[in-house]
Amino acid sequence: MDIELSSEDLTFIKEVRAFFEENKIKKDEDYFTWRNNWFEKAKKKGGWDVPKWPAKFGGPGWTPTQHYIWEQETTKATIPFDIPFGLGMLAPILMGYGNEEQQERFLPPIRERTVNWCQGYSEPGAGSDLANLKTKAVLSEDGTYYTVNGSKMWTTLAHVADWIFCLTRTDDSGIKQKGITFLLFPMKQEGIEVKPIITLGGAHTVNTVHFTDVKVPVENRIGEEGKGWTYAKGLLEHERTGLAGLSRSLFELENLKDLARTVTRGNSNLMNDSGYKAKIAELEIDLMATEYTELRSLASASAGAELGPESSILKLKGTEIKQRIQKLTVEASGIYSPAWGEKSIGFPFAKGGTTGYLNSRYFTIYGGASEVQKDVIAKKVLGLTKRSSK
Amino acid sequence: MNFELSDEQKMIQQSVERFVQDNYDLNTRISLSSDDLGYSDDYWKSMAELGWLGLPFDESDGGFGGNQIDVLVIMEQFGKGLVLEPYLASIVMGGGALKKGGTESLKKEILPGLVEGTKQLSFAYAEQQSRFDLEDVITSARKEGDNFILNGQKSMVQNAETADHIVVVARTSGGQIDENGITLFLIDAKSDGLSMDHFPTVDGLRASEIILENVSVNVDRVIGNVDEGFEILQSVANDAILALSAEALGAMEVLYKDTVEYTQQREQFDHPMSEFQVLQHRMVDMFMEYEQCKSMLYRATMESVQDPKSAQRTIHGLKHLIGKSGLFVGENAVQLHGGMGVTEELRVGHFFKRLLVIDAMFGNADHHLQKFTTY
After folding, report:
1. How do strand A180-186 and strand A136-139 relate by DSSP bridges?
2. For B291, which residue in chain A has the nearest alpha carbon?
């Protein structure tokens, strides 16, 4: 048991830092030109444009320690923004369950960031109880295409997505986990209507999506018909680990301390207020422990154990931590936290803080609400069964 | 970076685990605790024979050259049986002070007997007014020729009753709360002028209040440099916190697992209690607190092995978390055991009481939270 970094790891840190430094965005440089060049150069480094992909699919094939180092360094550097749906969520499914043709067709544009994906999972009647989904897909008589009808809800960035990966129901005769089929289809086509949902912070990121007689060729089906739940479940675990966002939280916590120091409190500043300081400290200690829970889970994953229920602990703790940071930001804004609208009033962080806090409430709801994560741990780790349900 | 124990450490872990399973059922513990000695001398001898007492000491002092990770391995298993033998007081604290600051001749005189189990030590640092502040020391040591003369009072001293020597923290210069001016002395437990008042603690262990009245000790019994003892004191306290936290972790594991088992067996409202979701989520919370404590313990221990100075902040964080989570797990284990949880008949209450004591040792959750904010 030791935390010493090997000389290879130390070299790796230097290499990563040098790469970030060399490829910083320059003053007046066009963001998208910079972004494309950045990924191009990262690709030449040996798969750094797709850090989490396995070597077999062109990723760097890093050790858990290298992944950890990368995570830590990315939060301190300016790197291009990525949307996780294609790269982090669909790609592992394609690699695990897609056929070769599908892999060749869909993975390259995901890697090139030329196609934006969205995730068609939740529905008006299927939130935490995701398997209850009703969007219907009916196979044509000649067996060449499905016709999809129904509605998806809370679909993040559906309004800018080119494609959707979608869970549909092809059979409702058995238990609800069976008869779910995993389909991929373009968003820009007749029969698909996207309507915005505005969340508490005033932002438009999620949508309702309606499907009316959308035709999907069978070659766009992942794996077998009716087995979509199995594929999606593996993906949910990936999603949950990703949602913890610990390195990001470390960075944001340091930011929060800095801005709390700019807030006056008597003759001193808010970071010297004993109550506020204690809340910050408690949060940081929880974050330090959770970081090691993540490392332990990475280590057991690399030793061959399946990515399993630890990901539920990480999602629970990680999202709670993110929310606490947002809440303490609102607290720091004090009398200015209610200021709303276009203008920047009072502290420069006040409005963003309140928006961030309101938006952060969904962290413990999406990707399986915290209460569902607890059900998962109760069943899978503690071996507890629930009272028989209908 | 890796979290695997070495093969030797795995062997020690298994042998301590077996020892605790075979020798530490609740009734044995209760009867040992109420014996004259308060623990088993036979067990202590076995621990010496198995090499556990020598584990953290250098090979040149008759030990096996282990570090804080080895102590973690032992203490975590001890925590699963609430072991009574004075490993913490004698080996980690008393022995640790000698290892860190003792002269070669003092180490030669004491450590071999300590490792063989024929000698015991105790570590007297706290005082009535000091609460959890290590630097708050009034007990004075005045130099007179080749001797120091000690006067004062020491509180909540573990294992003083059976110790041959006591490491006493005293003030040789400076004000009451100065870090400078603190000196550590190795004092014979039978010294003239030293009197003790022994009493049980709520967890089934023993402690003593000590009065020092003109106790004379030769200058060659000073551990470390005169006036510069704080660093050793802090370092011993850190090692003790790591060891206590490992013990707490073992205790927390027993508590959450016992609770899961109990709720599966006991039926109320025509169902096993474990089927009620409100109880399931409570047990998940207990499990998560346990896992988070384990992560923080690994972090603090590994950082201490790598660089003790830079680990200080993490150690404050660890003791905060252990105090808070330990009581959370303990209180909820009692709660979920219902009426039986508040009786002496089930072991959960005993484990809960030990966690209560661990929180009060070397600074409670609040104390360490405050310390954490000073960095």
Report:
1. unpaired
2. A293
Question: Cα(B31)–Cα(B38) distance, rounded to whole angstroms?
Answer: 9
Q: Which of B119, B136, B167 is the last residue of a domain?
A: B119
Residues B99 and B185 in one domain: no
Q: Which residues contact A270 (CB under 8 A, 6 or more apart)?
A: A260, A261, A263, A264, A276, A332
- Whether A390 has a pLDDT exceeding 50, the answer reads no
* Residue labelled with tokens 């096993």: B272
Same domain, residue pair B170 and B256: no
How far apart, in whole angstroms, are the C-alpha atoms of residue A135 and residue B99?
70
The answer to whether residue A100 sits within a structural domain is no
Task: Pick the closest to residue B107 from B88, B123, B94, B126 (CA basis).
Answer: B94
**From A285, A289, A385, residue closest to B372, measured CB to CB:** A285
Return d(Cα B182, Cα B225) in angstroms, integer.
9
Residues A168 and A272 in one domain: no
Amino acid at B51: G
Assess if residue B126 is contained within a domain: yes
Shared-domain flag, residues A310 and A369: yes
Pair (A219, A248) in one structural domain: no
B334 and B245 in a single domain? The answer is yes
First to last CA, chain B: 26
| B347 and B282 within one domain | yes
Q: Is B302 on the interface with A (CB under 8 A)?
A: yes
Number of separate domains in chain B:
3
Beta carbons of B369 and A278 less than 8 Å apart: yes
Low-confidence ranges of chain B (pLDDT < 70): none
Same domain, residue pair B238 and B354: yes
Instruction: Yes or no: say if A19 and A45 are a contact pair by the CB < 8 Å rule.
Output: yes
Domain end (from B211, B228, B245): B228
End-to-end CA distance of chain A: 48
| Location of structure tokens 């309702």 | A208
* pLDDT grade for A242, boundaries at 50, 70 and 90: low
Residues A255 and A372 in one domain: yes
- Work out the number of other CB atoms within 10 angstroms of the CB of residue A29: 12
How many Cβ pairs closer than 8 A exist between chain A and B? Answer: 125
pLDDT of residue A310: 64
Range of the domain at A300: 244-380
Q: For position A298, what pLDDT does the model report? A: 77
Residue type, B2: N
pLDDT by residue (tens digit) across B169-223?
999 999 999 999 999 999 999 999 999 999 999 999 999 999 999 999 999 999 9
Q: Which residues contact A4 (CB under 8 A, 6 or more apart)?
A: B1, B306
In a domain, B2, yes or no: no
Q: Which residues of B touch A316 (CB under 8 A)?
A: 288
> Cα(B8)–Cα(B10) distance, rounded to whole angstroms?
5
pTM, 2 dp: 0.92
**Would the CB atoms of B6 and A382 count as touching at under 8 Å?**
no
Asked whether residue B51 is assigned to any structural domain, the reply reads: yes
CB contact under 8 A, B298 and A292: yes
> Which domain range does residue B361 map to?
231-373
**CATH code, domain carrying A267:** 1.20.140.10
Three-class secondary structure of residue B353 per DSSP? helix
Same domain, A122 and A159: yes
Distances (CA, A) of B60 to A129, B14, B63, B67, B118: 63, 27, 7, 15, 18
Q: Is residue A370 part of a domain?
A: yes
pLDDT tens figures, A60-98: 988 878 888 898 898 888 889 888 899 989 999 999 999
Q: Which of A31, A66, A81 is the last residue of a domain?
A: A81
Closest Cα of chain B to A193: distance in Å? Answer: 39
**Chain A residues with CB inside 8 Å of B370's CB?**
278
Would you call A348 helix, strand, or coil by DSSP? coil
**Which neighbouring-strand residues pair with B158?**
B207
Closest A-chain CA to B281: A374
Q: Which of chain B's residues have a Cβ under 8 Å away from the Cβ of A377? A: 284, 287-288
